[in-house]
Amino acid sequence: MSWFWFSIIALLCWSGSDFFSKIGCRDPKDKYSQFKMVMAVGLVMGLHAAYEIFIGGTEISWSVMLTYLPVSLLYIGSMTLGYVGLRYIELSISSPICNASGALVAIIAIISGTAEAMEAPQYLAIALACAGVIGLGFVEANEDDDLRAARQEASNYKYAKSWLALALPIAYCMLDAAGTFADDLVLETLNEDSANVAYELTFLAAGIVCFVYTVIVKKQPLVPKMEVPKYVGAMFETAGQFAYIYALASGESALAAPIISSYCMASVLWSRLFLKEKLSWKHYACICVTFAGILIMGIYDM
Q1: Helix 192-211 to helix 33-54 angle, to the nearest 10 degrees?
Q2: Which among 298, 265, 302 is positioned nearest to 103, based on CA atoms?
Q3: Do the beta carbons of residue 74 and residue 176 sit within 8 Å?
Q4: Cα angle vertex 103, ends 191, 271, to 5°?
Q5: DSSP letter at 115?
Q6: What is d(CA 21, CA 36) in angstroms, rounded to the nearest whole number?
């Protein structure tokens, strides 16, 4: 299979993960939904890690697990906050904000002096992504309550204006950026396949901890109708990661990266078509600005 099809699969799977995770976590009454989502992702990733170890022959050790642990915790922490945020804000808004972490990584690299020389369009991309996210926050915070209620009527889910609604995807963006930055440093000493398995096993451990806390300690029920979307989202997340690795390993990362990086726009499309989320033109304008920055960064991602 060519890099192009792996890229398309990664795009569809990660946007599908966004979509089904939103369905699984959007009930505002279930304050444990994020832990149940971590349980689902942990189980699926754990099964994939077992396949990689016992069938794929990937080597793993406690040393690799501990070396990669800080990176794993940053990624898992960011995803957990993202799952919490899905209860408070539309997927159409949260996904572009979360996906702007690439711009933040670039800023961290520039400030820390670890960034390589960049071309003018890359600086423009960083500025666009940051401007789009800031614009989204401004529009969301200043939207008239009556207009908000009117546009949310079709989706049957009402999201109140709240600092938490914006803080959570922004926190995801920051933690994911820190994880990506640390990832680049740690992978200089680790095999990529072993690091990925270490990440999946750490996610499995996090899922077990969440199960003990949620089901055994807090005695929260697991209703199949509510849990199925979480596990579908978890499968899409794991499959997307698998396709992403093969797409970039093809040697055509300059072509694959911009395709994959556009998955947040697919998430916006699915939320509009199937979740009936409706945003104002100001929201969509800011999303397009953010997407333009992400796309330009993807084009230059070698």
Answers
A1: 140
A2: 298
A3: yes
A4: 95
A5: P
A6: 11
Nearest Cα residue to 85 out of 212, 220, 219, 176: 176
Distance between CA atoms of 144 and 286, rounded to whole angstroms?
Answer: 17
User: Are the C-beta atoms of 240 and 14 separated by less than 8 Å?
Assistant: yes
Tokens matching residue 199: 């990440």
Instruction: List, in order, residues 6 or more apart from 294 with CB less than 8 Å away.
Output: 96, 99, 100, 102, 103, 125, 129, 261, 262, 264
Cβ–Cβ contacts within 10 Å for residue 54, how many? Answer: 9
- One-letter amino acid identity for 101? S
CA distances from 81 to 37, 66, 114, 137 (A): 11, 23, 28, 17
Enumerate the H helices of the chain as residue ranges. 3-25, 33-54, 62-85, 91-98, 101-112, 120-142, 145-151, 163-186, 192-211, 224-249, 253-261, 263-273, 281-299
Q: Tens digit of pLDDT per residue, the chain (302 long)? A: 677 888 889 899 999 999 999 999 988 888 999 999 999 999 999 999 999 999 999 999 999 999 999 999 999 999 999 999 998 888 988 999 888 887 788 788 778 776 677 788 888 888 888 888 888 888 887 877 777 777 777 666 777 667 888 899 999 999 998 988 888 888 888 888 899 999 999 999 999 999 999 999 999 999 998 999 999 999 999 999 888 877 766 656 566 777 777 788 899 889 988 988 888 888 899 999 988 888 887 777 64
Tokens 């395709």: give the residue. Answer: 259
Provide the terminal-to-terminal Cα distance of the chain, rounded to the nearest Å: 20
Alpha carbon 49 to chain centroid, angstroms:
20
3-state secondary structure (DSSP) of residue 157:
coil
Place of tokens 């209703």: 223
Residue 221, exposed/middle/buried by CB under 10 A (0-12, 13-18, 19+)?
A: exposed
